[in-house]
Amino acid sequence: MSLRLSAIVITKNEARNIEACLDSLAFCDERIVVDGGSEDGTARLAEAKGARVTIAKEWRGFGPQKNFALSLATGEWVLSVDADEQVSEDLAVEIRRAITEGLTDAYEMPRLSTFCGRPMRHSGWYPDYVLRLFRRSRARFSDDLVHERVIYDGQVGRLKEPLTHHPVLRLEDSLSRMDRYSTARAEMIVNSGRRVSFFTGIVRGWWTFVQTYFIRLGFLDGREGFLLAVANAEGTYYRYMKAWLKGRGRG
Fold first, then answer.
1. d(CA 159, CA 109)
2. How many angstroms separate the CA atoms of 65 and 71, rounded?
3. pTM check: above 0.85
4. Which end of the chain is less packed: N or C, by CB atoms within 10 Å?
5. Res 250: pLDDT
6. Crossing angle of helices 198-210/222-250, nearest 10°?
7. 163 near 132, Cβ under 8 Å?
8. What is the β-pairing status of strands 52-55 and 150-152?
9. Torsion over CA: 204, 173, 33, 38 (sign)
């Protein structure tokens, strides 16, 4: 008899987060972790929590990595979460109810993220609906290096309880995250053949701050809202500057 629900998580140096993440997934029939060669004991901690751990020696991007994890799942349904995310008891109940009723083959859920310890209910960060629950046979992930998405052709249901997300615990985390993601996004821009100028990053970075802090009401998130607006602007600025430098080098 096949399993009902598989949880999949990809990791790389997530020792700080993986235990709480897997604890929140205890209601699933199996928990699969694909580790990208962590050096902080993430794989060992995941195994101690009872997860089925596979080491992926080559990092090919978020999309391909998640598709690999998906290929290891055996459940009829799949729940995909990131290591810095957690499923509350209320959301777990709602997920179980959704797959029992089976009204559709895929569900999205709101995601409530924190920034330096503060839940961000504005700034474009909430409700931030993400498609994370789907029948294994009906969906897959895009092959994007970063900001991958679930590819599913059909009606998407919507859950009410939020998935909690802790991407930035300290400002240092924001800087590290900005550097990694801007590099990956810059590579995607260059590979697409899109041309950017030196001034693209300046204009886009300024506009990102305006969008986050004013248009998306980031100022209502207090001082952390200002910090987030600046971080978003910097991420956009460096993304396009890196793309410009890479494109110039190839030219």
1. 5
2. 10
3. yes
4. N
5. 62
6. 160
7. yes
8. unpaired
9. positive
Where helices occur in 84-221 by DSSP H, the ranges are: 89-101, 171-191, 198-210
Q: Tokens 């396009």 map to which residue? A: 240
Instruction: Quote the longest CA-to-CA distance of the chain.
Output: 59
The CA distances from residue 168 to 17, 88, 117, 150, 162, in Å, are: 12, 19, 8, 23, 18
Residue 84 corresponds to which tokens in the numbers above? Answer: 């810095």
Q: Quick one: tokens of 44? A: 């060992």
How far is residue 176's CA from residue 12's CA, in Å, rounded to a whole number? 14
Which is nearest to 69 in space by CA: 87, 51, 84? 51
Give the 3-state secondary structure of 38-88.
Answer: CCCCHHHHHHHCCCEEEECCCCCCHHHHHHHHHHHCCCCEEEECCCCEECC
What is the mean pLDDT, run by run of 10 residues, along the chain of 251 residues? Answer: 86 96 98 96 98 89 95 97 98 97 96 97 97 97 92 97 95 91 93 93 97 98 97 97 86 52
Pairing status of strand 139-141 against strand 77-80: unpaired
Domains and CATH numbers, the chain: 5-167 (3.90.550.10), 170-250 (no CATH)
Amino acid identity of residue 187, one-letter, is E
- CB hemisphere CA count around 26 (13 angstroms): 8
